[in-house]
Amino acid sequence: MVINSDGTQMGVMSKRAAIELAYSQNLDLLCVAAKAKPPVCKVLDYGKYHFQQQKKEKEAKKKQHVVEIKSLRLSPIIDTHDFETKVKHAKNWIESGMKVRIDMRFRGRMMTRQEVGREIMNNFIQEMAEIAIVEKKPSLEGNTMSTVLAPKKK
């Protein structure tokens, strides 16, 4: 099945006849549906077609929304003012649509007091509860406890 450059169907023809038709119009023959019965080919300017395809892909890429993940590091021995400052930063990021990853690193003898770190992590999550949801629950991986908070759907 051959489709002309202006969109009219030329009908079913042999491969050689289709190529000659395209050649006589100084255009290319492009197979658009190879698995169809019969295969569908179109007579067109391939350079122009390729350029339009690239333009469509670029436009689609512009419309994509990439979610950025910001990272915060807490400590099991964090002071209240430092804690409030980190909460404030995290709230600003969440409100602007970003995800926030909170890490808490245990060093040396702090590993024996993981419950203190877990309590601080839970306090942080409760402070953020009104605007964020927990995407990944706090979990210990090696000597680092981490969690991911995402903005609530509106």
From TrEMBL:
An annotated GO cellular component of this protein is: membrane
Question: Which InterPro entries does the UniProt entry name for this protein?
Answer: T_IF-3_C_sf, T_IF-3_N_sf, Translation_initiation_fac3_CS, Translation_initiation_fac_3, Translation_initiation_fac_3_C, Translation_initiation_fac_3_N
In terms of superkingdom, the source organism counts as: Bacteria
Query: Where mainly located?
Result: cytoplasm
Q: Which family does it belong to?
A: Belongs to the IF-3 family.
Job of this protein: IF-3 binds to the 30S ribosomal subunit and shifts the equilibrium between 70S ribosomes and their 50S and 30S subunits in favor of the free subunits, thus enhancing the availability of 30S subunits on which protein synthesis initiation begins.
The molecule here is called Translation initiation factor IF-3
Organism of origin: Floccifex porci
Gene behind this chain? Answer: infC
